[in-house]
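Figure S4 source data
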Amino acid sequence: LSLDNIRHKILYLSSLWGGEDENKANRRNQPRFNVVAKHVFEYPNILTLSLEGNIQPTISFYNRTGYIYVGGNTGDDTGADGADGKRKLVSLPPRYIATSLYNRLLPRWNYHLVHDAEIIKDDD
C-alpha cells in the first residue's frame, strides 16, 4: 500500500460516505474526514482493495441495481427513489463494498432475476 494509493481511495470513499452523514457531521461540528475515519476503522481491509478493480465496480453495481444512489461517482443515473420521489443515498457499510462482485454479488443477482422470471412465467 502506497500513501498515494490510499489517498485516492480515501478521497473516493469520502465522496461516497461524506454526503450520507454530512448533516450529522455538521450538527456536531465534526469534519467530513471523521465520518470516513469511522467507516475505515470499522473495516480497515477496505484500504487493501483496488479502487478501479474492486471498489468502483462494486459501487456501480449497487447503484445500477437501485440499492443506492451515488449520482456522478459512477457515471450512470440510476438509483433508488424515496417516498417523496427524490433520490436517496442509502448508507453503505464498508463490508458491503468489500464483498466480491464476481464471486458473490453477481451470482446472487442472477439467481434473483431468474427466480423472478420463473415466478412471472408461472403466473401467466
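Figure S5 source data
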Amino acid sequence: LRVTDEFFEQGDVELARGMDVTPCCDRTKQSRVAVQKMFITFLCAPFFDAIATLYPVLQRDVDRLHQNKETWASYTDAELEASREPPYDAHTSSSPLSSSTPDLINFGPHDLAPP
C-alpha cells in the first residue's frame, strides 16, 4: 500500500497545482491493485530479473516477486484498505516489516556476494 499511497499523493499534488495528473497517480482512475501490478511488472521485475542473472542466489526471491504479482489479482482495493496496518514509525518500531507480511522479498548484503 505504501507505493500506491506515494503515487496517489503525487497525483493529488499535481492536481492541486493545476498540472495534468500522471495516469498511474490518479486515484480517481486507477485501482491500488492495478498500480501495484504495474509497479512490479514495469519497474521491480525487470530490475530484479537482471540482478538475478548476476547473483543467482536471488532467483528464489525473484520467483517470489513474480508470485506476489499474481497474488495481487486476487485482491480488491476495499480488502487492501481494510487490512491496512498503522503507519510505520521509525522512532517506536524496530522494523517496518510485520509478521503478517511473509511474502515480502527480504534479503541482506550477505546474499549479494559475487558468484
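The radius of gyration is 16 Å. Residues 32-54 form the longest helix (23 residues).
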